[in-house]
Write a structure and sequence with these properties.
The structure holds 2 protein chains of 2 kinds. By secondary structure, chain A is mainly α. Chain A is built from 1 helix and no strands. By secondary structure, chain B is an alpha/beta fold. In chain B, the strands form 2 sheets. A 5-stranded mixed beta sheet of chain B has the order 5-4-3-6-7. Chain B is elongated and about 85 Å long. Classes of the chains: A mainly alpha, B alpha/beta. At the A-B interface, helix 1 of A face helix 1 of B.
Chain lengths: 53, 197
């Protein structure tokens, strides 16, 4: 089924898949980290600081 | 991103889109590759199983065999002869690579080897054949690439097999390797020769 260049093409696809998966995972991880950060900040907004009490 | 979109609840679908696109494309390529009976080395050609173009392509001046000028291509070049038509040029490096295979086909009895010298100078073409040997019984000089267009040539080298009725029954794109000569060309030619006797 595969031709003589398969030894190059198949690893190229595999490397592309790994690179894309990693990039996607990092993007999602950063996205959730930012969401959590924003949520924490917004929760803190409603709490009066010690100095303000 | 407000407090009513809590972390972990929303999923960034846009971020996974490239991965899905990649997997989709790879899947399409794989399914096309693995389709039963599909030979991926064959490019479709409108000329397959059709009569070969009957056009006059002038001879290569100065190319002689036993003191006789090798003829150019004419309307009757393919009548009654099993032919190998090879598109070549002196500037084409893969043509050098496949030349021994063309010579081998030329050594077969009852097989005529026709060369289409594609966009080349006569001097360089003669030097090429002088250096590597001339397997051609007929050589047409296709200076402007007109004949190559008629034959539906993608690039140089290309080789066609034409039966005794002038019908193109096989087309090969790129240089012919020794393996392809043994596995494809020789069996096809021998099969036709057996039927031709």
């Amino acid at each position: 089924m595969f031709g003589e260049h398969a030894a190059f093409i198949v690893p190229a696809y595999a490397i592309s898949f790994v690179a894309l998966s990693l990039t996607t995972a990092i993007t999602i991880w950063i996205y959730h980290a930012r969401l959590t950060e924003i949520q924490t900040l917004e929760e803190q907004k409603h709490k009066p600081r010690e100095s303000e009490r | 991103m407000t407090a009513d979109t809590p972390a972990g609840k929303s999923f960034p679908w846009l971020a996974v889109l490239p991965l899905f696109l990649f997997l989709g494309l790879a899947g399409v390529f794989y399914s096309l590759l693995s389709t039963e009976g599909r030979d991926t080395s064959v490019l479709p050609s409108a000329l397959l199983n059709e009569p070969s173009p009957r056009m006059i392509v002038p001879e290569l001046p100065g190319l002689e065999v036993d003191g006789i000028q090798v003829p150019g291509m004419g309307g009757e070049t393919f009548s009654g002869k099993l032919s190998v038509v090879n598109v070549f040029a002196s500037w084409c490096v893969p043509c050098r690579q496949e030349h021994p295979q063309i010579v081998s086909m030329g050594e077969l009895e009852k097989v005529q080897v026709v060369g289409i010298n594609h966009r080349d100078s006569n001097r360089n073409a003669l030097a090429f054949l002088d250096e590597l040997g001339n397997p051609y019984d007929v050589v047409g000089v296709d200076r402007r690439g007109r004949a190559s267009i008629e034959w539906g040539v993608y690039g140089v080298p290309e080789t066609f097999l034409v039966d005794e009725n002038g019908i193109i029954f096989y087309k090969h794109i790129g240089p012919i390797s020794e393996k392809q000569l043994d596995d494809i060309f020789m069996p096809l030619l021998e099969q036709k020769l057996t039927g031709f006797k």
